[in-house]
Design goal:
Elements: H1 2-11, H2 17-51, E1 57-61, E2 64-66, E3 71-73, H3 80-85, E4 90-96, E5 98-99, E6 102-104, E7 119-122, E8 132-137, E9 145-149, H4 150-155, E10 163-167, E11 174-183, E12 194-197, H5 199-206, E13 213-218, H6 224-237, E14 243-247, H7 248-295, H8 297-305, H9 310-349, H10 362-388, H11 408-430, H12 437-463, H13 473-484, H14 486-524, E15 529-533, H15 535-538, H16 548-553, E16 558-571, E17 574-581, E18 594-597, E19 606-610, H17 611-617, E20 624-628, E21 633-642, E22 651-654, H18 655-661, E23 669-674, H19 679-689, E24 696-700, H20 701-744, H21 746-754, H22 759-795, H23 807-824, H24 826-833, H25 837-842
Parallel strand pairs: 7-12, 9-11, 17-22, 19-21
Antiparallel strand pairs: 1-13, 1-14, 2-3, 4-13, 5-7, 6-10, 8-11, 9-12, 10-11, 15-23, 15-24, 16-17, 16-20, 16-23, 18-21, 19-22, 20-21
């Protein structure tokens, strides 16, 4: 049987071209995503391990706010470093302090860091423990000294000795560039803009000399564990509480765990789309083997006639599929490595700040080959069993055509599943029992699969109506050919159904998000203008100096300028973001629709909460909550409950609270209300104020809202790109089915030519048939996608209440389906048009 399988592949290799392509694309997608994320993770981990190679331990606070990806620890006094350095077993100790800082160029701009957050740090007294090193010039010593990372120094046109401004400080506080900073080791970059200060300079920029942690190095002969234990014992003996010592390996491990969490999530998200491509590929494989087995009925029957058992025939086809699967998967794995390398080069071109080294994880290559091979064998198993069940008498038949089978039970079960699935899905989103979706949605999708053959004939007739106008024989033949084998046509179109349904679902949900977000922000923001800073700046606590907003507030034509800022806190034992603002003027720029209490003029011990958050936590006006900021905790009283939380989030306090509890609190947005028709003059005046703050921009409220909605559109484009692979595999499946069916119908097509059909008419018939199949997939995919999009939107209606159907986008998807169908039929149609009439009529 093995030899028969090999001979079958050698004799008809082109039958499996589409199968091979589908496997290669799916496996390549899977491997490429893993190669990219693994390479990125290993490069970052390697840089971190190298930077902390001389660090044997660290001393830090035990007070921590846990977030999803990292820890926010309380800072500790700078002089803790001196105390730790005096402990037995400590060779040296150095303080480490970081925060937001950004250098301004001579032309008043900032260097683009490709979306990476800029940061500053205090240059340590002991450079042996620093993850950074001076590569040119000198280390910062005086209060106005700075050193810049190599990329910023070069890209910004800086020179040693330049006097520059460093954000967020005003231009009046200038610094002198004294050196250039690089990684402490053989690394290739620091990733994003980095500015180094003396400890006194850092205190001016960050607003404190308290440090994040103390790095320590052990005496010779002392292990990291012994060092940490010695420090802990010494601190306890001195009566020092709230501090802990960890080993250098634990420190590096925590950084690596954080990076690993992020890359794991990214990889898992990308693998979802790779899995979709593999599932679509499985349908292509199934169809290919179904058709080829049907075309080889006489061959199978002859094997049965000369004594081959059902298991042997089945095994021969399975061996064929396994050989194809292993070979194509191996090629796909290699292509995936190449694609991963291309993606890494793209990241480098975007300016990630790192030269990312290619890492090829062997387990990923093995997994890719296994997944592709198993997927192929699994998809080919049913056609193999069907082929093995052919009776020996079939060897006497002149032709080999797959006999379409119809099953009433399949249709009945499909209808029942559709009713159950749709009912449960609707019930789940209307009755808030979302757990029922885990049954309802799979049942609905499975029902579509089962009902496919039953709906092919009526849909073919409906879709072909424009093609059969005026008695067009080509349209009628295309319609009948598409409906001749409903199961095959259903399986072929199903690949496109999956791709289109996912595209439509994403499109509908994105439209709902956009419409809801726009409507909610338009309801809430009553201001005329918005000043914002980049999200990468806000990520590290950066923003505008608080003195900027009062300057804007004093401008002619400005009614109110209200700043907003954020802080990471722990409330009710959970991580949260709290928004601070000038609550005395809040009502002049925002309408939060207060439902209880008041949010105006909040006191230093008061906090307001959104209605949704209050319901989750069972809070009412007058309740007390403990809010733990990075440096200290405060007990606050709930003073108000508001409904609209899209702009300010779930928790709201006055800026005075953040000024008292956060080391340096900077504004990330400023809402501006202007008088009458003073909008244009206000825009110009505010822009002039912001001229010395290149990270901030002013725009109208409408433009700001459009920008927020535009982020959703960018995400949708990314989803389109990720789903494109699945749609491509689906179209390859249509081409494959048409090409194989032409081979199967060679005699029939020859007879059509013999009785007078022209080559042009034959080509048109094939193109029409391909279009009908593609349109069936597109129409069913549109319907399924609309339903899934509605379900997803209803499930998220608390956040996105305004369901929207993007009619124009759906029309575009339908048009693309038509064009794709025509394109998929071009090659098969050309092949059919070139058939020799005599050879076609006399061939088997």
């Amino acid at each position: 049987m093995f030899q028969i399988a090999i001979r079958g592949l050698k004799q008809n290799p082109f039958r499996y071209v589409a199968t091979t392509i589908a496997i290669v694309l799916g496996v390549a997608f899977y491997v490429a995503t893993s190669v990219m994320t693994t390479s990125f993770e290993d490069t970052l981990n390697g840089s971190i391990a190298e930077a902390f190679d001389d660090v044997d331990g660290a001393v830090r606070s035990t007070e921590v706010i846990e977030t999803d990806f990292a820890e926010i620890r309380q800072k500790i006094p700078y002089d803790t470093g001196e105390r730790v350095a005096a402990i037995d077993g400590v060779e040296r100790a150095g303080a480490f302090l970081t925060g937001y800082a950004q250098a301004v160029t001579a032309d008043g701009d900032v260097v683009d860091s490709a979306g990476l957050p800029p940061q500053g740090f205090a240059w340590p007294d002991d450079t042996e423990l620093s993850p950074y090193a001076i590569v040119d010039g000198a280390a910062p010593v005086d209060v106005d000294d700075v050193a810049l990372d190599e990329d910023t120094f070069a890209d910004g046109g800086f020179a040693i000795g330049d006097r520059i401004r460093v954000l967020p400080l005003p231009a009046t506080q200038a610094f002198t560039v004294v050196g250039v900073v690089g990684p402490n080791g053989d690394g290739d970059g620091l990733g994003g803009q980095t500015v180094a200060f003396s400890i006194d300079g850092a205190a001016q920029v960050f607003g404190t000399t308290d440090v994040d942690q103390i790095f320590v190095q052990a005496d010779d002969g002392l292990s990291q564990d012994e060092l940490a234990a010695s420090i802990d014992d010494a601190l306890r003996s001195d009566g020092v509480s709230g501090l802990e010592a960890i080993t250098g390996d634990e420190l590096v491990g925590e950084y690596e765990d954080t990076i690993g969490q992020v890359t794991t999530i990214i990889n898992a998200a990308l693998q979802v789309f790779a899995s979709i491509a593999l599932v679509v590929g499985a349908f292509v494989i199934y169809n290919t083997f179904s058709i080829t087995v049907a075309q080889r009925r006489r061959e199978m029957a002859l094997l049965r006639a000369i004594g081959a058992s059902t298991k042997q025939v089945t095994r021969s086809i399975i061996v064929e599929s396994l050989l194809i699967g292993v070979g194509a998967s191996a090629v796909g794995a290699l292509v995936g490595v190449g694609l991963g390398w291309v993606l890494l080069q793209g990241l480098g071109t975007l300016g990630s700040g790192f030269d990312i080294a290619l890492t090829i994880p062997p387990q990923t290559l093995v997994a890719g080959v296994l997944i592709g091979s198993i997927n192929t064998v699994f998809a080919a198993y049913t056609p193999a069993r069907r082929g093995a069940s052919i009776a020996p008498i079939e060897a006497l038949r002149e032709s080999s055509i797959e006999q379409p089978a119809r099953s009433k039970w399949r249709t009945v079960i499909g209808v029942l599943l559709l009713v159950v699935g749709v009912t449960m899905s609707i019930s789940a989103v209307t009755g808030a029992d979302l757990a029922a979706l885990t049954v309802g949605l799979p049942a609905t999708v499975l029902a579509i699969v089962l009902l496919g053959p039953a709906i092919i004939r009526p849909m073919s007739r409906l879709i072909a109506l424009p093609m059969v106008r005026n008695g067009s024989i080509t349209g009628e033949l295309a319609r009948e050919n598409a409906a001749r084998n409903p199961k095959r046509t259903s399986t072929t179109s199903l690949t496109l159904v999956i791709g289109v349904a996912l595209v439509v679902t994403a499109t509908v949900f994105a439209a709902t998000m956009s419409t809801s977000t726009k409507g909610q922000l338009e309801q809430q923001i009553t201001a005329d203008h918005v000043v914002t800073v980049g999200p990468e700046i806000a990520l590290l606590g950066g923003g505008l100096d608080p003195t900027i907003t009062p300057s804007i507030d004093e401008l002619p034509g400005v009614d109110a300028a209200v700043p907003f800022r954020q802080a990471s806190v722990e409330i009710l034992d959970g991580f949260n973001q709290v928004t601070g603002t000038d609550t005395g003027q809040l009502e002049q720029v925002l309408d939060l629709n207060v439902v209880d209490g008041s949010v105006t003029g909040l006191e230093s011990d008061e906090i307001a909460v959104s209605e949704a958050q209050a319901e989750r936590d069972g809070l009412t006006v007058g309740d007390e909550v403990e809010v733990r900021f990075q440096q200290q905790a405060a007990v606050m009283v709930v003073a108000g409950v508001y409904e609209r939380d899209d702009f300010v989030g779930s928790w709201l306090v006055d800026n005075a609270v953040l000024d008292a509890n956060v080391t340096r609190s900077l504004d990330t947005e400023v809402l501006i209300s202007s008088r009458g028709d003073a909008g244009d003059s206000v825009t110009a005046a505010v822009a002039e104020v912001l001229a010395s703050n290149p990270t901030a921009d002013i725009e109208t409220t409408a433009s700001f809202i459009d920008g927020e909605v535009g982020q959703i559109d960018q995400l949708l484009i990314l989803l389109y790109g990720l789903l494109a692979m699945s749609v491509l595999v689906a179209l390859i499946g249509i081409v494959n089915t048409m090409a194989l069916s032409i081979h199967e119908r060679t005699r029939e097509l020859g007879l059509l030519r013999a009785v007078g059909m022209t080559s042009r008419q034959l080509r048109r018939t094939i193109r029409y048939e391909s279009t009908i199949i593609a349109l069936i997939g597109t129409v069913v995919g549109l319907g399924l996608g609309l339903f899934l999009g509605w379900v997803a939107s209803r499930a998220a209606q608390d956040t996105f209440p305004d369901f929207a159907i993007p009619v124009i986008s759906l029309i575009v998807i339908a048009v693309v389906g038509i064009v794709a169908g025509l394109a998929a039929g071009v090659l098969p149609a050309r092949r059919a048009g070139k058939l020799d009439v005599l050879d076609a009529v006399t061939g088997d």
